[in-house]
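Researcher: Quick test of sequence recovery. Tokens follow.
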């Protein structure tokens, strides 16, 4: 019986997280097709993405709550220990806190359409920044070439002069 409780302890939150990630991915595909907003899978920022995660956490919380009730019945029957029940209650409270956190973040998050325009502005700034770095590097190289070319010519003339003076004295 302990192995079943341990596998539930590991598998149930993992399945809930995987289902939430899948729902988030589907929502991001829908947003990309609908409004052109391209999101990062690891950092959801739009209101709809955060709502999807909050709903996934709510579903996981409901499943965990049913599991805790089942485990309490098994504890009353003497099949599992109080530690097992306490571990699941800890995961249940953590899931509840994560759900509340994502609900609060969803309330203040911007819609995907606004984030799309913000990323377009950031793309332009990124393009200007990289262009400045490239052309600045080319400009510095041209400056150094124009500075070092006359010095090289002077050193070649000076070397030729001293070589000619050396030959004359021998």
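Model:
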């Amino acid at each position: 019986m302990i192995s079943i409780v341990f596998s539930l302890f590991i598998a149930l939150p993992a399945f809930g997280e995987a289902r939430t990630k899948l729902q988030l991915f589907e929502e991001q595909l829908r947003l990309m097709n609908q409004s052109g907003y391209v999101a990062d899978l690891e950092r959801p920022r739009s209101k709809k993405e955060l709502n999807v995660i909050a709903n996934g956490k709510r579903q996981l919380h409901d499943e965990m709550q049913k599991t805790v009730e089942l485990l309490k019945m098994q504890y009353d029957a003497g099949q599992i220990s109080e530690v097992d029940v306490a571990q699941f209650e800890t995961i249940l409270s953590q899931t509840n806190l994560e759900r509340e956190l994502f609900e609060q973040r969803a309330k203040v998050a911007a819609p995907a359409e606004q984030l799309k325009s913000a990323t377009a502005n950031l793309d332009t700034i990124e393009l200007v920044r990289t262009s400045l770095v490239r052309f600045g590097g080319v400009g510095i190289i041209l400056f150094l070439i124009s500075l070092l070319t006359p010095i090289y010519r002077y050193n070649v003339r000076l070397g030729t002069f001293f070589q000619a003076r050396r030959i004359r004295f021998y």
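Residues 133 and 152 are 28 Å apart (CA to CA).
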